[in-house]
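Human: Here is a favour to ask of a fellow structure person. Comparing notes only helps if you start from a blank page. I am asking you to supply a protein in sequence and structure-token form. Write it directly below this note and I will take it from there.

Assistant:
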Amino acid sequence: MFVLVSLALAANATEVHPKFIWKKCTKAGCTNVNGFLVHDKHLEGGTWHRGGEQLDYEKEVGVVTNGGTVSQRLMSTYKGAKVTGSRIYILEENDKQYEEFKLVGKELSYTVDMSQIPCGVNAALYTSEMPQSGKKTSEDPFGPEGGTGYCDANCVDGDCCPEFDIQEASSKAMVFTAHCCESKTHCDTSGCGYNPYRDSGDRTFWGGTVNVNSPVTVVTQFVGSGTLTEIKRLYVQGGRVVKAAQSLNDVFCKWGSGQFAQYSMAKMGASFQRGHVLVFSLWASDGMSWMDGGNAGPCRSYNVASIKASQPNLKVTWSNVKFGDIDSTY
């Protein structure tokens, strides 16, 4: 079933977006930025949300905000159709355009509660080189205010662009991955990522060294001056800072040679400098072994239908999003 809102109605209406506070930081301290959140125009489950129709964020897509905290619920109902998860973006203080982050030489941090996320459910936070003004068409004339313009390295909805997965994770495994693009129609869909379970054989890092039953602050540092050279990861929990055993760089990624000759940290950095939009996402699939099963994690079976039926209200909670100078956000 597809639900379409008439353009006549949409032209005279503007969706009210949830307020969302994040912080911009320097070594001198952090200041609040009073932004907004908007849901992607597409709702998983066969329905489409148009920018002129008011969406009940809590009831219809399970998104609840409170100051600088946002949670995403697994199952919701929109116009009688079941909706799984959600995908939301930060809007600028003017509530008109997506907030763009230029990441080279900066770091981004946030606190996440993963305690309710089982095998097969992906709590993802990532960036995408989406157009700041969205993608207006005759059918979708709303731009960012209607959640249009999504693109990623897997060319979802046919639109390809560089993507950086800051985290794709359940309570069983965690991976962060960079995806460059060769052109507007071809990207490195596999990307270069680090998962301690898979790449270092550390089967107790995520869930042991990092206690997934308690909130953890995730810090990602985009090292470079003008040109990106390395992406580092830190975890902060209980007053302790834990460095990931591996950062992403051209040597680890084997970028710059062979089939990956068209990809590099410098190319990823050039995309970052053009500006990336921050994406909060929750979704589920029986085909999630690449993230937390096989050699990637301890999950050995998946039954998403059972999880949706028995745990529809499970959620991921994000808070305290900070962006700024390296070593200024934690």
User: Anything to note?
Assistant: The mean pLDDT is 93. The helical segments are 7-11, 57-61, 196-199, 250-253, 265-274, 289-292, 304-310. The longest helix spans residues 265-274.
